[in-house]
Amino acid sequence: MRVLVLVGPPGAGKSTIGRRLARALSMELIDTDAIIEERFSKTCGEIFSELGEPKFREIEEEVVAEALQGCGVISLGGGAVLSPKTRDLLADLEVIWLDVSAEEGLRRTQDDSRPVLQAADPAARYQQILTDREPLYREVASFKARTNGLSPQKIVTEILSHLENQ
Asked: In the prediction, which pLDDT does 126 show?
C-alpha cells in the first residue's frame, strides 16, 4: 500500500489517528492542512478567513493532489471532499472515513477558532457540515471508523484489522 487516506469532519481525529496509523504502518504522515499552513506561514483558519472559502478550497485541492503523489498516511482537511477533483483522485485509493457524531465533534472543536465552524448556533452549524459532507465521505470511503467513545488505539486497531482483511 502506497497511500492510506484519512477523511472526516473537524474533530473526528484525523491528526491523532493519522500519527498512530503512520507509526503502526511504518509510513510517513502527510497532513495537508499542515502543508498549507507551512506554505503560507499562517493557520488554515487565517488563510480561509483572508482568502475566502473558494480560494482556500482551490489551494487545498492542489495540495491534496501533490500529497497523493507521495507515500504515506495522508490526512485531508475536513472539507477536502467538497472538491469533485479531489474525490476523483481518491476513487481507487484506500480511504478511511473517521466518523464522529455532531455532539462529540462539536465538543472536540469547541476551543478551536476554525472559521468554517463559526456561527451563532455552533451545534446547528456542525450538524449542517455533517449533513452536507456525509454523502461525499461515503462516496470516497472504503472503510468507515466511528470515533465516538473509542480510544485512539482502539480505532487504529480497527483500521489495521480492516487493512489486513483487504
From this structure: 86
